[in-house]
## 1
Amino acid sequence: MPQDERDQDKTTIYDVAEHAGVAISTVSRVLNNSQDVSDATREKVMKAIRELQFRPNRTAKSLAQRATRTIAVAVPTFTTPFHNEFLKGVRDRLDDADIDLLLCDLDWEAPRATLLNFLERGAMDGLIVAGLPINEETAEDLLTLGAPVVLIGSSWPPLDSFYWDEEPGARLAVNHLIEQGHTRIGMITTPHDNRLRNARVNGYKQALEQAGIEYDERLVVHGQTRKHDGFSEESGYEAMTELLSLDEPVTAVFASSDVQAIGAWQAIRKAGYEVPDDFSLVGYDDIKVSRFIGLTSVAQNMHYVGERATDVLLNRLDNTGSDEPVSELVEPELKVRKSSQRPDD
């Protein structure tokens, strides 16, 4: 391969920004044909692109050029209640818009490769991506797409993003159980070592430490079922069965998701116990079914996030609103229901 071709392959959006003497967000706006860039700045960026022989992501060639616009939403799976809440928010915002919606089911094992393959096959005017781990390489793919992108669950300037700090949410759940008088509190998590899992486990540990309760690693368990990356009823059932087998059982359980908590609830009942009489139980996500069965949960307000993310994307498509990137930290809320209440409360 010729030297100049190798150099071209290595050129990134960061190189263009440095060469032009502008912010990465400015280069992204030029690539997205935003109107909020002066002619002089646009020419400066285009000159840098030419001089560096920079090529935007090849998926940009397939962007939609049609009267009816199309946006895509990529999620780890759209069969889970958690992501359904988010998709309902997106759908509600699109009810009155003349916009087609494409869905991409990201593979848990190789989400970036799955997304790139999806983008190669389809045409879109904008993209919402949920649950995708972001590093510089993935950010480069998105920044050079040639279409506005909104991240859900992660943040990378200058992309628009909505995200959570998982540690405070976990602390809310465990502090509530401690306030109910529990000192032996189990946690159901997932088998994979990742940012989300680690943050929630850290929040669990912090709450125990602040209350003067010694952390016991034997009380942090996960199921063997790998479906949905361990966020499943089956996994919760298996994990609770392990907690029930301990010589000194727990009296309360914090599950990393509502679906795991629902599985744990079934294991508790099968063992002849009841919630909350024998065990207090708290989940995470506050999916719709939790409100009907009385499961205490940490709400992430996914319907709201779906609506807001869609609003931001539509504003980008219409070149309306502020040109500054949206970066919103969504605060967790504890929704207390009967599953965690002591019988005498």
## 2
Amino acid sequence: MHQASSTSFLQSTRRAIAAAAIAALVASCASAPSGSTTQSPGSTAGARPATTLTPAPTTPAGPDAAALEQQRFAKWVADFRATARASGISEATLRSAFDQVQFLPRVIELDRAQPEFTRTAWDYLDNTVSPQRIATGQDKLLQVRAEADAAAARYGVPGTIVVAIWGMESNYGGNYGSTPVIDALATLGFEGRREDWARRELLAALKILDSGDIARDRMIGSWAGAMGQTQFLPSNFLAYAVDADGDGRRDIWGSMPDVVASTANFLSRSGWQAGMPWGVEVRLPAGFDYGRADMAVRQPSAQWAAEGLRAIDDRPLPEFADGAVLLPAGAQGPAFLVGPNFRAVLRYNNSTNYALAVGLLAQCLGGGPDVQAPWPRSLAALSRSQMVELQTALSQRGFATGAADGVMGPATREGLRRYQRSVGLPADGYPSVELLQRLQRP
């Protein structure tokens, strides 16, 4: 680091100390789709990084502790700045990015938060595929029809799907966050719980600034570093963002041609198959083995049809080479046959509830139906602590679930299915209060 820039950085950091508390109060999270939590949200390529239940260290309270933390943050930034310079980031970009960088305590609070209450699929869909969102989305689809048609012709992704993701990620651009991405990622990197991930994303953000795609003050997004109207992480911006309007910049904040094309390109590169639906609601045959309703159990639609699966409207099933049956509410709720395009949406955000919401919202935007079969609305969702109790009880009975972490992952689902089979229940792997109570009986 040159002496002049080092002095400037330290002076600006001292100025930032007084402002940090105020900044923390106004820093806010983008309206990422509420409740979009299942196995590991955003774990592969989408808008959000994977979450973890690993406890993070706490910081002592008090003015002295706050000042010490600001000094440690300044040291971390200075070290990272040297690393970025060695990676080829220009001095002008480093000055722009870091001379006024701020530590945001609110980002750490949000990152450490572990919500106690989970949501059922129907509660999630009631909120994300609401009549208001459908009506607004149909208007927005008309407004971006030219951009959507161009992207569909180039990438094979229907405009309804792109607009559905736009609606899910930022309520059609109404709220894509107000947190400076550089500040958020620097804070997460300094805090250390996910430092390697945050450092990679921060370096990617610097490369975006260095390329001239966006100015630092316009690079805003969620507290977790997701950016723009369809919430790309910086690494995904570098990989998939498109300059569709030909102005020499990839702008997913203000250019609708760039927003639409970039989102379509993301899905296309994630395995989207042109001309294929995301899935279809189905009726299951009598005696269906609910244990086979799993994203890992895939076979051609013809085979599912031979076993008795039928589309809810009695039309032929889509011709999937590797379709899977999805039961978002277990054996008592609606059933879907999903294909490769559903899995492409999962790469955007690795939540089956999210992918289902995108598919259904797109379907409704195009004038199609919502879910036809009734949801088992009398079933209550297990809280996180109840899920820990369920996992513990299963393990005590010899049905291993892995760590009792309160997260419904594949190991817990398989352990629950094995227990259900052992007592003659449908092995749908769906957790319920009734099952928990049954497990806890002597």
## 3
Amino acid sequence: MPTELHLAHSPCPNDTFIYHAWTQGLLEAAPPVRLTFADIDITNTACQRGEFDVAKVSFAALPYLAQDWQLLPTGGALGRGCGPLVVTKSLRRREDLNGARIAVPSQRSTAYLLFRLWAEGISPQHVEVVSFDQIMPQVLNGTYDAGLVIHEARFTYESLGLSCLEDLGQWWESTTGAPIPLGAIVAKRELDPEPITEAIRSSLKHAWAHPEASRAYVAEHAQELSAQVCQAHIDLYVNEFSYDLGEQGRAAVETLLGRAEKIGLVPGGKSWFD
């Protein structure tokens, strides 16, 4: 184990809530850690280059990382009623996406993988990766016909005058019955996963036991979100799967990546649970 682990996760409320105690030195027995805030589009590709020691990535990125990274059973984002949305100003039907310009947060995000599964047979004119905080503004100004939004955008899109063309979480759950695997925590394979897993679980237990302790820290990094939206974000994305993926969570991941592999959306031949 290195003398200091380099951890990367997003500045979103669910991540800052979970990792606050560990990254702020409140856990006596946890390994020392250095934090980098990074959007998931960055970590998905940075991990392929070997950056960081522990990172939050998309479950959709696991097939590209399985050789050098191990999936940890804790600290991620998986649940129900928390899926990405396809938002628009003017489109009304799935078929309207034919020939459309679409903004997505990452080409290797779970959100985009769900979109591709849902939109199989649709041929957009153009799909472009856009920072998730810029997707709704650029749909509003007409740069894109539709946007794939994640995180707290599900709480704010209506107030901006956008409508939901499809809730991909509802589509996924109604199609499979499984929870939605969104964000995963991975560690380099040469690292012992046990102390890292224990540090994350201890940090989460501290957050649940002392929610007021992280409130200012969460707000500081929440990109000017209201306290109500921050709490709604935490309530939605931090749950029992954050503590332990469990059999149900593992089955959901197998379902997602198995379906994607079957139609050639992700590479096959590797196990993400070894």
